[in-house]
Structure formats: structure tokens, C-alpha cells
Design a protein that fits this description.
- By secondary structure, the protein is α+β, with helices and mostly antiparallel strands.
- It is built from 18 helices and 17 strands.
- Strands 12, 13, 14, 15, 16 and 17 form a six-stranded mixed beta sheet that branches. A five-stranded mixed beta sheet has the order 3-6-7-9-10, with helices on both faces. A four-stranded mixed beta sheet has the order 2-5-4-8.
- A hairpin with a 5-residue loop joins β9 and β10.
- It is globular.
- The N and C termini lie far apart (52 Å).
Length: 541
């Protein structure tokens, strides 16, 4: 077994490879095989950002007033009330940001006009292969300037760490470097941009003088200029910040299963995604498109079905509303372990290996009395007693925050799980989930931690098995009373039956054809989508 996230595959033989800038965003999660083979599947339903694009097209290219553009879009798309609310807000914020950008351009005597056709650049190799790159966003041109405006659903945050790393000469963001290079060498696409089998027909190339890339938030109307420079500077940024990463995508030599699989036409026939019919214990609803499912999806749906809709539409969510200090504590403890367990050579965590400045490390969730920070430090120290690195060779195969993907054709679903740790002890694989809480859980483990139910079912199905050795499943509980390590017997018929029952219980409501109407009430208290939900309870219960 190579790695459960990155399996090697024979080289790509396709004669047309097309890469979009959205595929370079979060490039480390993209699957090179899907991209190199052009195995993209069309989006099944509108999303938060596709609705914004549709309205802006009517404003910029049909020259409709905003109110008229919204009405026409609503007649065509028949959006849900939630999507309509989001689109009205997002378009207003985007236009506000664009007005500010227009004022800046006007002050610099630059007049930019929207460009309706896509931009792409194309290269042909000696063997006849065609390699194409395109950018996604709003396009503007004038006075020798090409400007790309990338719309984001969330607030744009240029973190101090990112700005400092760029200032110190570290690698730039591959998405921005890619977009800069494409703008520097692109022509307009004259042919059908949805045809993945034929190369683009492009207009005559005219070299721009200046390239500008701007990021716009559709949540608050903020914007950041991410790149502003000459054509030569843009091409240099591409060479140093994106060329190698993009070449690896185009080569198509690695499978990287994950959320991208639902966009792939190879799903069900991909050697990197095991097929386990019936693992969810549900049947697909006739007429529904393939969907992605996770334990988190099931738990969110159980709280309020509308959360499933909002998540599917990719609405921006209020993370602060969803997270308690306990949740933030657990997340930072997990991040600490991820760093420790990925060390090379591999070595056991020691009780003294804790954050140097606990108060600073836990500043966002320590509380006024610092209790949460002290508890977290205790948990990190206690972990050394049960650290799975103990006894493993220095070159052991270990993967923190690992993505595991499985296809269930009976549910017509892709199951995606991010497991805390996968490690190989020389005999077989072990999946370990780590949980933090004030005290050990007493009662039904699968009901409390459904991830364990999924892990047991994966083990029973032979997923991640090695030479006939079943996947082992462990639970590490770090509590105020000390660490507790439990190994679940995935071979026990009783344990397996309980695990299957829990999965079916969690998945059934999402697959039985039920509607996605909101259930306002107590669930609104920790919902990050309240802002977009017309039914949400806005005040205290």
C-alpha cells in the first residue's frame, strides 16, 4: 500500500489536459488523475457563488439594473428563499467592492470594461498533446490592463503570517501565481468552453502591459489586491510559484481521494476509492444525483435538515457561533498532535513536550481563568502515556488527519472521513480517533462518536486491510481524569451490528427523500447559517 491518500498510477496518455484556476485553489487536495483525464462531472445544482455569477452577468453584460437582474434570475433559477436571500446580499456586497475598485482605477486614469468571454492560454507539444489553462472569476480589461476579480463567499483575511511569509521570500499562493501567469499569456475563448474533448479555439493574442488580481468578499464587500505588476513579473510569479505544482497535476501520476471525487466521472471505477455496497445501510432515492456523505453531515442533518442544504450550497458560515471553548480546545490539541506525529524520524511524544507559552497558544479559548488552557496542557502531557508512536520504527508509515473515501453504489454516495491518525506497525493498519472531554464517556460509544461506527464498518469491509490483516480501531480519550485507550473488536458480530445500526440511523434521514426544511429551535443556537435562514430563531430561546 502506497498511502491511503496518494496512490501512484501509470502516466497520463490523454492528448488534452485542461486546468482551471479553481482547481489550483487548495491544490494539495486536488486529484491529479481526475484533472489529467478530464474526468470532471458537471455541477448538479446551483451553489452560493454560481448564483452571484448569474446575477452579475445580467448586470454587466445585459446591462440590467440590479433589481431587474435579480428578478430575471429568480424567474430562471427558481431559487429557494435561502439562496435568494444570500444572492441579494452577496451581489450587493460584490458591486460595492467593484465600485470602490472603479474609483481607484478612475483616479489612475484607467477605464476597465467587463469581458464576457473566458480567458485561457494554450500550449501544444511535439507529440500533438494540448495543454490549456483557464482562470475563474470576473474579467476586466482596458488601457493595457488585465484584471481578474476572484469572488469569495467568506470574508477575505490576509493573515499576518501569510503576508510575513511572502515578504520573507517564501513560496507564493499557487492559485494567485497560476492566475497571474494565465492572464499574462491568455487569449479569449471563442469555442464552447464546456467541451472537454476538443481544444479551445482562441482569439488572436494581444500582450497586456499590466496584470492585476483582486480578491473580493461577497460577505462584507471587502477586497484585497493580491497581485499588481507587469506582464514579466506575472510570468515570473507563475514560474516560481505554480509551474512545478501545476505540472504535477497535469502529469496525473497520483490518486488523491477526497471531496473532489463527487465531481469525478471515474467514481465507482477508481482504484483509489474502495467500493463497499451497502455500507451506509440505505438506498438511493430515485432521481437524486450522487452525493457526498460524512458523519458530520449526518449529525448536522439530525440537528436541522436545512443545515444540509446550506452546506451543499456552500454558504459562508459563522464559525464563532458554532464553536465553544471546548471545541476550540479540542481542535488545537489535535493540531498539536498532528505536528508531533508527522515528525521525521518518527518518535514517541513525551510528557514534557507541550506549548512553551500555554496562555498565548490558547489565547482564543483559554477563558478568563485559564482553565481550558491548563486542561489542554494536561491532556497533551497525558497523551504521552498512550502515544501510538511508542515502539514504531523511525520510518513508520503514519498519517495524521487522513482523508479516507469509500463509494457506496447502493446509496449512490461517496463517504468521506477525516480520521485523526492512521499508522502501520509493520503488521497492519490502525485507525485511531482521539477525543478530549472533561470526563470519560459512559454509555454508547457509537452514539457519542459515530466516527467509530464508520471505522468498524470499514474494517469489516476490508478497507485499509494489509495482507489479510483487518484494520484495527482505537479510541483515545484524553480527560481531566487521565487518558483512556480503548480498542474496539471489529471482528465481533455484536460490535459490527451495533456499528451498522448507528450508521443507518445517522444516514437514513438524508437519503429517504425527506425535505430540507428548517426546524427552528434550540439548534439555531450553534448554527453558523442563521444569517441566511429565513426560519431561524434569531433571539434567545
Amino acid at each position: 500500500m502506497t498511502s491511503s491518500t496518494e496512490k501512484q498510477t501509470p502516466g497520463n496518455t490523454r492528448t488534452l489536459v485542461r486546468i482551471h484556476s479553481w482547481e489550483v485553489h487548495a491544490i494539495e487536495h486536488r486529484c491529479p488523475v481526475r484533472i489529467s483525464k478530464g474526468a470532471a462531472r458537471a455541477a448538479a445544482s446551483p451553489s452560493a457563488m454560481s448564483s452571484v455569477k448569474a446575477v452579475l452577468d445580467l448586470v454587466e453584460f445585459d446591462r440590467l439594473p440590479l433589481a431587474d437582474a435579480m428578478q430575471r434570475w429568480k424567474r430562471r433559477a427558481e431559487p429557494s428563499p435561502e439562496l435568494a436571500r444570500w444572492a441579494a446580499h452577496a451581489v450587493d456586497q460584490a458591486l460595492s467592492a467593484m465600485a470602490s475598485l472603479a474609483a481607484i482605477s478612475s483616479a489612475e486614469a484607467d477605464v476597465l470594461v467587463p469581458v464576457s468571454r473566458e480567458w485561457a492560454r494554450q500550449r501544444r507539444s511535439a507529440d500533438g498533446s494540448v495543454y490549456e489553462e483557464t482562470v475563474t472569476g470576473r474579467r476586466y480589461e482596458g488601457a493595457g490592463i488585465r484584471e481578474l476579480r476572484i469572488l469569495r463567499p467568506k470574508v477575505c483575511k490576509r493573515s499576518e503570517a501569510r503576508e510575513r511569509s511572502e515578504a520573507e521570500g517564501e513560496a507564493p499562493d499557487p492559485e494567485i501565481a497560476f492566475a497571474a501567469g494565465v492572464l499574462a499569456g491568455a487569449s479569449e475563448v471563442l469555442s464552447n468552453r464546456w467541451d472537454a474533448q476538443r481544444p479551445y479555439a482562441l482569439s488572436r493574442f494581444t500582450a497586456p502591459i499590466r496584470i492585476r488580481i483582486v480578491e473580493i468578499s461577497c460577505e462584507d464587500g471587502g477586497f484585497h489586491i493580491l497581485f499588481d505588476g507587469s506582464r514579466e513579473e506575472a510570468l515570473h510569479l507563475y514560474r516560481t510559484g505554480a509551474a512545478n505544482e501545476v505540472a504535477a497535476l497535469a502529469a496525473g501520476e497520483v490518486y488523491r481521494p477526497g471531496s473532489d471525487c463527487t465531481k469525478c466521472s471515474l467514481l465507482g471505477a477508481c482504484s483509489a476509492v474502495p467500493v463497499v455496497p451497502g455500507i451506509l445501510g440505505v438506498s438511493a432515492t430515485p432521481g437524486r444525483t450522487p452525493r457526498q456523505w460524512s458523519v458530520t453531515d449526518g449529525r448536522e442533518h439530525a440537528k436541522c435538515p436545512a443545515r444540509t442544504l446550506f452546506n451543499r450550497l456552500r454558504f459562508p458560515r459563522d464559525q464563532a457561533a458554532e464553536d465553544s471553548d471546548e471545541v476550540r480546545r479540542g481542535r488545537d490539541v489535535h493540531k498539536w498532535f498532528e505536528t508531533q506525529h508527522e515528525r521525521v524520524p518518527r518518535r514517541k511524544c513525551r510528557s514534557g513536550e507541550v506549548p512553551d507559552s500555554p496562555g498565548q497558544w490558547a489565547a482564543e479559548w483559554a477563558g478568563t481563568d485559564g482553565f481550558q488552557a491548563r486542561l489542554a496542557i494536561q491532556m497533551i502531557g497525558d497523551h504521552a502515556v498512550v502515544c501510538p508512536m511508542a515502539g514504531l520504527p523511525s520510518d513508520a508509515d503514519v498519517h495524521s488527519e487522513q482523508i479516507v473515501a469509500v463509494s457506496d453504489p447502493e446509496a449512490d454516495a461517496l463517504i468521506v472521513a477525516k480520521v485523526d491518525l492512521l499508522y502501520h506497525d509493520g503488521m497492519g493498519w490502525t485507525l485511531r480517533e482521539t477525543k478530549t472531554s472533561r470526563s470519560p464517556h459512559q454509555g454508547d460509544l457509537f452514539g457519542k462518536h459515530p466516527q467509530l461506527a464508520l471505522a468498524v464498518c470499514l474494517s469489516a469491509a476490508g478497507v485499509l486491510s494489509d495482507a489479510g490483516v483487518r484494520l484495527r480501531v482505537e479510541l483515545e480519550e484524553l480527560t481531566g481524569r487521565g487518558p483512556v485507550l480503548t480498542e474496539l473488536d471489529a471482528t465481533s458480530p455484536v460490535v459490527l451490528a451495533a456499528a451498522r445500526a448507528e450508521l443507518a440511523k445517522l444516514a437514513t434521514p438524508m437519503f429517504d427523500g425527506s425535505d430540507l426544511h428548517a426546524r427552528p429551535g434550540s439548534a439555531c443556537g450553534d448554527c453558523g447559517f442563521v444569517r441566511w435562514c429565513p426560519s431561524a430563531r434569531k433571539g434567545p430561546a
